[in-house]
């Protein structure tokens, strides 16, 4: 026991120490991560803004270079035109010699440019007929066809005109040419260059080259330009850490979403940061806007920054934290073993005493030993055992009392059931049935059926206020009083008044009362006589009419006032007529949703089964009420009488 307790104390100290280390380490790492991430975030925004202006400038260079090349071509064509005029007019060179001179000039230029240019120089008359021609490659068109087309373009033109035609040597490429008027005779010079030369100019100023040079100097992993349509217009670089590379699809999707949000935002943020957790670590991308493309499509610049340094710093911090944590845990374990040994011995003694008491020996008391705290705990435990011992005795006495009370209640319930008619009396011309169900072991409802002279039947149904034993005593008194007076043949109103005076003398100060309905059914006279003391009206269903509730003046419930008076009522009761008397525990019973069973539901059920025998109808009503409760216990006693004239 002492060893186990010492082990638990040691483990607890180590657990608390480890939890403290974890919390401190987590806070330290989180602080470092936030600091480093913030640094890269700000650095990323700065680099994106620098790259934005550089790349936008670089995107303009190919167009500017092309325009400069076009202007240079026009200037060159004018110079060549002057040279041709001098050769023809002052040097008297033949067209063949001049053409040879021009071809030599083209060859020398191609040699100086590494053989990348495929060019032509031609002189045409005003009508487009060729005069001189110098061409290195095969142009695919005759000089006459080219001259005719250019002559048509120059008519009405204010200056040089540009021309473009397919290159026969390079599929999907074109030969670009410029035609410049030469002198006053309408002749013109044509200077052309093939795709290799124009491509070489654009390659020297390509956006990819600019992005690659920026990539090398900025220490970033990748740069991409993506437009709103999801097209990658240019990109450069690749990740040195493949596990950390953001995929092309992720880059395109993020840029498109960034441009969409930028367009719809009321207060746009022109810099976005995209962080992706990869297998090899986190990847950080920063996106900014670029100037729209020539066709007006918005574009975004995406730069993925190198994050391996961040992860290296974090790994170093984790290593340091783990090392320090292990050392602290070892020290905490040693301290825990030392402290656990000192604390375990008195606590083990206390635990042994607890085990003895737990086995039921409440007379045992724990000896107070060890530290003050342990002695205090032992004293408190002994006091608790004293309290448990007293409480156990109290529970035993209370259990005995409850057993006696339960026995008395069972006997009372049995006696109460004997007071109810075991079965209805046999009266010619009448079919009678009834039942009563208590909400508790004993209830506050009763009914009685007594044959009277001349072949009639006296019935009564009462409902005492409250429930349980007090209500049961009241109805027992009421039922006994009715039986004592019923044989004296009083009119029902007078009989009800006598019963009330007898009850009121005993119940005036108790605050209890009884609602009662009494009736006499005389089959030979086809008469129903009745009187009510605050009871809910019974249901009367004539053989040839609709069911309704008996209407008539009633008096106060029994026991409220000693001087209360009660009325007599008489009505025909023919063969087939039906009378249903009930307590309010039936119509006011509630379902799980709090809805009442209601008088309307009772009327509808009785009307539907109005021709059933009395016993069958009584059981049908009982089953319907039980189904309505759906397993719930009723809140009040329920009693029912069914009387049919047959």
Structure described in brief:
This protein is of the alpha+beta class. It is built from 13 helices and 20 strands.
Give the topology, please.
Elements: H1 2-89, H2 95-112, E1 119-124, E2 130-135, H3 143-154, E3 161-166, E4 174-181, E5 188-193, H4 195-204, H5 207-218, E6 220-227, E7 232-236, H6 248-264, E8 271-278, E9 281-290, E10 299-305, H7 308-358, H8 372-419, E11 430-437, E12 445-452, E13 456-464, H9 468-486, H10 492-507, E14 514-522, E15 527-533, E16 539-541, E17 548-549, E18 569-572, E19 578-582, H11 584-587, H12 599-608, H13 614-629, E20 638-645
Antiparallel strand pairs: 1-2, 1-5, 3-4, 4-5, 6-7, 6-10, 8-9, 9-10, 11-20, 12-13, 13-14, 14-15, 15-18, 16-17, 16-19, 19-20
Helix pairs in contact: 1-4, 1-5, 1-7, 8-9, 9-10
What does this structure look like?
It is built from 13 helices and 20 strands. The protein is an alpha+beta fold and about 650 residues long. Strands 2-1-5-4-3 form a 5-stranded antiparallel β-sheet, sandwiched between helices. The chain has a 5-stranded antiparallel β-sheet with strand order 7-6-10-9-8, with helices on both faces. A 5-stranded antiparallel β-sheet has the order 11-20-19-16-17. Helix 1 crosses helix 4 (about 195-205), helix 1 crosses helix 5 (about 205-220) and helix 9 (about 470-485) packs across helix 10 (about 490-505). The radius of gyration is 57 Å and the shape is elongated. The model has no long low-confidence stretch (mean pLDDT about 75).
């Amino acid at each position: 026991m002492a060893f186990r307790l010492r082990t638990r104390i040691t483990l607890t100290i180590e657990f608390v120490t480890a939890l403290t280390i974890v919390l401190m380490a987590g806070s330290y790492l989180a602080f470092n991560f936030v600091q480093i991430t913030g640094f890269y975030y700000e650095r990323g925004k700065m680099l994106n803004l620098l790259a934005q202006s550089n790349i936008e400038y670089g995107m303009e260079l190919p167009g500017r270079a092309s325009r400069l090349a076009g202007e240079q071509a026009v200037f060159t064509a004018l110079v060549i035109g002057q040279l041709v005029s001098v050769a023809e007019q002052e040097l008297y060179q033949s067209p063949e010699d001049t053409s040879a001179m021009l071809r030599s000039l083209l060859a020398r230029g191609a040699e100086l440019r590494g053989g990348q240019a495929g060019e032509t120089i031609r002189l045409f008359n005003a009508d487009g007929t060729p005069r001189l021609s110098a061409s290195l490659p095969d142009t695919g068109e005759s000089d006459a066809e080219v001259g005719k087309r250019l002559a048509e373009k120059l008519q009405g033109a204010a200056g040089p005109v540009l021309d473009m035609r397919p290159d026969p040597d390079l599929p999907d490429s074109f030969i670009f040419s410029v035609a410049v008027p030469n002198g006053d005779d309408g002749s013109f010079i044509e200077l052309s260059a093939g795709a290799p030369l124009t491509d070489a100019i654009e390659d020297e100023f390509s956006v990819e080259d600019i992005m690659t040079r920026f990539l090398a100097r900025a220490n970033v992993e990748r740069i991409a330009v993506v437009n709103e349509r999801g097209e990658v217009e240019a990109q450069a670089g690749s990740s040195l850490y493949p596990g950390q590379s953001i995929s092309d699809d992720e880059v395109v999707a993020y840029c498109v979403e960034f441009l969409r949000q930028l367009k719809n935002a009321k207060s746009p943020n022109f810099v976005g940061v995209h962080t992706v957790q990869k297998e090899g670590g986190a990847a950080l991308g920063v996106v900014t806007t670029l100037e729209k493309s020539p066709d007006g499509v918005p574009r975004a610049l995406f730069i993925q920054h190198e994050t391996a340094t961040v992860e290296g710093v974090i790994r170093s911090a984790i290593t340091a934290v783990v090392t320090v944590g292990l050392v602290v845990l070892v020290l905490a374990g040693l301290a825990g073993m030392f402290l656990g040994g000192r604390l375990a011995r008195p606590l083990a003694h206390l635990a042994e005493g607890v085990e003895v008491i737990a086995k039921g020996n409440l007379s045992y008391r724990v000896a107070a030993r060890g530290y003050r705290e342990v002695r205090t705990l032992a004293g408190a435990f002994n006091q608790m055992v004293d309290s448990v011992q007293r409480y156990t005795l109290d529970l035993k006495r209370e259990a005995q009392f409850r057993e006696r009370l339960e026995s008395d209640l069972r006997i009372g319930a049995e006696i109460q059931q004997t007071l109810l008619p075991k079965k209805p009396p046999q009266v010619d011309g009448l079919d009678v049935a009834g039942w009563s169900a208590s909400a508790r072991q004993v209830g506050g409802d009763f009914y009685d059926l007594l044959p009277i002279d001349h072949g009639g039947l006296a019935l009564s149904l009462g409902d005492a206020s409250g429930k349980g034993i007090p209500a049961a005593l009241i109805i027992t008194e009421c039922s006994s009083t009715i039986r004592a007076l019923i044989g004296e043949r009083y009119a029902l109103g007078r009989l009800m008044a006598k019963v009330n005076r007898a009850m009121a003398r005993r119940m005036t100060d108790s605050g209890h009362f009884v609602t009662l309905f009494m009736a006499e059914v005389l089959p030979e006279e086809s008469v129903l006589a009745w009187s009510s003391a605050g009871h809910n009206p019974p249901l009367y269903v004539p053989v040839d009419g609709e069911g309704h509730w008996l209407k008539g003046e009633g008096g106060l419930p029994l026991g409220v006032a000693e001087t209360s008076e009660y009325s007599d009522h008489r009505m025909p009761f023919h063969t087939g007529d039906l009378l249903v008397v009930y307590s309010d525990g039936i119509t006011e019973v509630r379902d799980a949703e709090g809805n009442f069973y209601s008088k309307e539901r009772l009327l509808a059920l009785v009307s539907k089964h109005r021709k059933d025998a009395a016993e069958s109808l009584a059981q049908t009503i009982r089953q319907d009420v039980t189904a309505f409760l759906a397993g719930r216990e009723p809140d009040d006693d329920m009693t029912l009488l069914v009387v049919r004239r047959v």
